[in-house]
Structure prediction request, 138 residues.
Amino acid sequence: MSTSWHEEIERAYAELERSQQAIAQVQRDMSERTVTVTAPNRALTVVVDAQGSMVDLTFPTRAYRSMAGPELAALLIETIAEARRRATDELAAMFSAVLPQGAPIVDMLNGTADIDQMINDAVRLVRDQPGAPSTGRG
Prediction:
């Protein structure tokens, strides 16, 4: 082995610091990000923030006045859902630059990722590295 375990730890720590700085920048960028979606019939426009929370709703035309209540409700639901999907996609793209390749970013953003399994996999990868110190555990 050309480098010591200590040097590998130092290199990993430096990479962790770079990642933390990049993630902090993504978080700052997120705080300013919004997504705007206009319904296909242009009856309404929805604005959501990076987390998918609706921050604005406008009716740029009077088309909504001739819509039945259930039709307008369905249009609202569809347009808000589309805005949230786009916000999630944009957020995933932002985080893909700072998280490891193959990380389940969308699952992490939606809260459906198995974080315990991800941590176990990461620990296993480190533990299985050549020259890694033995933990005395199987």
User: Anything to note?
Assistant: The radius of gyration is 22 Å. Residues 19 and 99 are 8 Å apart (CA to CA). The mean pLDDT is 82. Strands lie at 34-38, 45-49, 54-58.
